[in-house]
Amino acid sequence: MTNSEKYLVDRWYVAAWAHELDKGPLGRTILDEPIVFFRTEDNTVAALEDSCAHRFMPLSKGRIISGHIECPYHGLVYDKNGNCTRVPGQSKIPPSAQVRKWPVVEKFRWIWVWMGDPQKADPNMIPDFHWNDDPNWVSVGDYFYVKGSWRLFVDNLLDLSHVAFVHRSTLGTDGVTNFPVKVTQGDETVHVDRWIFNEPAPPMFQKVRDFKNQVDRWQMITYRPPSHFVIDVGCADAGTGAMDGDRSNGVTMFSNHSVTPETEKSSHYFWHHARDFRLDDRVLTQTLAQATKTAFYEDVEIIEAQQERINTARIDKPIIDINADAGVLRARRMLEGLLDSQKIN
Ligand code: FES
Ligand SMILES: [Fe+2]
User: Fold this and answer.
1) pLDDT single digits (tens) 57-90
2) Full set of structural domains in the chain with CATH
3) Ligand 1 test: best mutation among 49, 59, 74, most atoms within 8 Å of CB?
């Protein structure tokens, strides 16, 4: 299968946290393509094929010299456009001494790479994750390497009924599954909203406010293909009008995720969790960082276990769907439609 049959290629993908480039070049495989990311002299980011034109040495194992990257094997040097600028021991540079480059943008503390036709790489198409660097929010986040398909994250993040089982100690309460979801669709978005009324606050919300009584909770998911998820989660004292837009008796957090395929069976999982209250409370920041890391790693363990089973499953074994899959099924249809139209074009 070609890449455009497996993945949505004309899209921006998160390749790294910006700080991951502080220590030098970073090698990361994105959509089956080995890429090296590094900072150039003007502090912008370059994304080049991570394979030297001479003898395939990964350039990511090399070093940066004045914003260019030097191959660690025989010292060929490449600029940010992938053109070789130096061959040790000779003045003439072979015309084919170059490596591929990809459009790359730094935004919202993440490094974004465009994996399709470079002519179509419009930075305005980068999905909104402003919570990650907006001064009105404090955001904590991390990266997990996952031995599981990005598609399993679509299942995971569009059906939060799993919080009652996977995240008992952090996000879950037993009542979640008793409340149905409402699924709607935008131009290239799927929205899955759930209100949970008159239930206890989940453990993570108890950490941020001492909710004495029952709460009304919300989980509002916005999915943007292929694998971007913005989730508005919160709770307020029960019956105080949160559903009508009054959140003054509650707390809101955004739990955002972007999953980039490394291959069809492995992923780069970027997430951040943002709050807009007690911004200077460092202890709370640490507490939430630890709690969210614990919670999202619980998902990683589920996904890796599923993938292991999928790898060895009988291919004729059918799967079943349940009511909680309403959002997942809508998202899959949208995704398949986009992949089909990509094959035609
Ligand atoms: S393999 Fe890179 S310079 Fe020889
Ligand atoms: Fe989860």
Assistant:
1) 999 999 999 999 999 999 999 999 999 999 999 9
2) 3-125 (2.102.10.10), 134-344 (3.90.380.10)
3) 74
